Amino acid sequence: MTVLKTSLRSFLSHKGRMLLSGIAIVLSVAFVCGTLVFTDTLNTTFDKFFSSTASDVTVGPEEEENAQDTGREGMIPASVVDRVRAVEGVESAEGVVINTQLTVVDEAGDSVGSSNGAPTIGADWGPDIQRSMELTEGTEPRGAGEALLDADTAERADIAIGDELKIITVSGTHMVTVTGYAAFTTTNPGAPYVLLEPAAAREALLGAADVISSVHVQAADGVGEEELRDRIVAGLGGGFEVETRAENEEAMNEDVGGFLDVMRYAMLGFAGIAVLVGIFLIVNTFSMLVAQRTREIGLMRAIGSSRRQVNRSVLIEALLLGFLGSVAGVGAGIGLAVGLMQLMNSAGINMNTSDLTVAPSTPVAGLLVGVLATVVAAWLPARRASRVSPMAALRDAGTPGDAAAGRVRGVLGLVLTGAGAAALVAAAGADEASDGSMYLAGGLLLTLLGAVVVGPLLASVVVRVLNAIVLRVFGSVGRMAGRNALRNPRRTGATAGALMIGLALVGSLSVVSASVVASASDQLDRSVGADFIVDTTGEQLITPEAAEAVRAVPGLAHVTDYTVVSLELTTPDGKSTDEEVIAADPTYAQDLRTPVVAGELAAAYEPDRISVGESFAEDHGLSVGEEITARFVGGDEGVRLTVAAITSEDTLFDQGAMYLSTDTARAHLPAAEMPLNSVMFITAEDGQRAAAYPALKAALEPFPQYEVSDQEDYKQQLEDEIGMLLNIVYALLALAIIVAILGVVNTLALSVIERTREIGLMRAIGLSRRQLRRMVRLESVVIALFGALLGLGLGLGWGVTAQRVLATSGFSVLEIPWPTIVTVFVGSAVVGLAAALFPAFRAGRMNVLRAIATD
Fold this sequence. Notes:
Elements: H1 2-13, H2 15-53, E1 57-61, E2 76-77, H3 80-85, E3 90-96, E4 98-99, E5 103-105, E6 121-124, E7 133-138, E8 146-150, H4 151-157, E9 164-169, E10 172-184, E11 193-196, H5 198-206, E12 211-212, E13 214-219, H6 225-236, E14 240-244, H7 245-292, H8 294-302, H9 307-346, H10 361-386, H11 403-429, H12 433-471, H13 475-487, H14 489-527, E15 532-536, H15 544-551, E16 556-570, E17 576-584, H16 588-591, E18 596-599, E19 609-613, H17 614-620, E20 627-632, E21 639-647, E22 659-661, H18 662-668, E23 679-684, H19 689-699, E24 706-710, H20 711-754, H21 756-764, H22 769-806, H23 818-835, H24 837-844, H25 848-853
Parallel strand pairs: 6-11, 8-10, 17-22, 19-21
Antiparallel strand pairs: 1-13, 1-14, 2-12, 3-13, 4-6, 5-9, 7-10, 8-11, 9-10, 15-23, 15-24, 16-17, 16-20, 16-23, 18-21, 20-21
């Protein structure tokens, strides 16, 4: 009880000094809890939507695994509805039409798509969808040429009743007039909905009047879902997929769940980095508090307190700090989740705060993370406090340094760093990406630990160099700032280490992203012979109508069709595999110059010929001239394909791909099963390239879902996409860097308190307030630059090694973004200045006489 009282009294007397450490805990726990609450709420939102749209039993087409992607939705005969209604136990059965592979274009020629990546959905305005949507304005569609639009999309895209929309599907283009708006009665999943009269929907969305997408069935009272499913299966026979509500919801949840799991674990990973950085801050805080309370602890030991009691006293303070910070962090996390929900609402996914889901495990996880991180971080300072002797009560504050411990720390740090460096070298020299990745992971961990452990030893050397280069121009004030940074290398190393982690990740990711872009650009220049590429901006394939518009452009030497065909291959060794094979025109050998290790690639485009990748050939013992037995999914079986070429994997584009000609695919697939183009490659006639580019863009203007790019455009798109991804990662890393900045602030603030008497004496002998503030700011800058040097040095090593590992997958060009590295380094100095504002202001405001009188 005495230990608890002492801990409480000490905690309350130093609550100001604990504040910034507490903020670090709050931020870290908030990120963890906010992620959990947000993803749980997303799950709840989609669960409600799936529950509101699912019927007791759903009857749909039986889809073959690895089926060809024809751009068409699965269909069943409309007559199936009457057959289902005749089954005993069916209360109602409605035919449903739905198409998720379409584009809706407004009168300005812009795509009415979502901004969150969700597909545009076309459906029939029938009894089934009216269970989850209601007409909010205007009139229902009464025939062909009329449609409803969901209210959220209409508001976002500024589409009024009476406006015309163009619906583009594989079956053609259809014009409709908006007659009204419909809104979801439960949750808007974020996808644009265009709703047509049922008969018109079958024609426009599925291309025929006598087909539907599925049958949604409601069971009569007293009939279970599984019982009704079994009856329907018995009544219909084979050829259909029949699912209960539970099975349907589970399937839909699996589709969404994979994405949500990736999001959750990625965000928790960044939260973990923030927690790790926060541990540095807490270690530093308690180390300084223990040092400042050396005399107090010595007196406690002199009057009978045991080592265990002193240790327990410090850990109780850490427990209090961790608990209070974690409680606040849980609350802040819920607020963060609400903010993320508002962000999703602005992106078109309506998330209501009434669906806010706080699972019991979420606050428990937050408390565990915060409390355990704080207690673990405080263990070393607590252990150090327990070793304070009673004689320390007779000395000035400040624990004496342990030279032996410092030597052990230095040796351990050098060993860890050396082992990590060896692992990185092994990763860079690995022949296989899997081996390289394993060595890289070990190298990252060991070099990080080594840098953390050896940080104080490096501080003694690096800070002296920084003092000579950066602080010399500031005269005596600069020299004093440098000496203050060197006064406690362990503290300086720990403070800089927190900043080092975030900047190391920034530096390594910068190198990797720049190298990926440079490698892709280099491969594009060396391998791609086509002048232009037609690609999709979403997941919709290139419709026949759009492909014909491309071919009709004058001045083109050739247009290459490029699609992906699903095959089941049986090799001479008796093994069968499902493979996706590229089917292209023979001109593709000119459009993409893929190197071969055997045979001629042009021969692979002859009838019933195929090329295989180097690894596939090695795995199955294949050589040029051997035959593979193929089944074209949905088409011919037992087709004998002769291996005409084996392609090298020393390439970035189509690495390991198999090729055959589109004529071979068409010969063995029914027209309805032939996949649509996913890309088209175009080469202009000599002298026509400049004119062909705008002509192609004009030809595809009615189809905003497709994009024409030349090689420079393609490079820019790649750079923009990687840059966008990198910005998201940097934004998530910003939390860790903010926590690191708090660490610098806290270290300086506690250092100012520790040096109160010294500051008073310096002021008494003539140091001005301005000079004092400059001294504190310069000390902060040196610490920040030291952290930046460590972090960027590590980051460059990690990034270069990662690029060498990626080189085994074709990313062979190393590009170091020096402007980014220099900007981050200079920015670190700015961060140091910003972090010193409050401590410098506080130091300058000290009363000289009171400071001198401080014990």
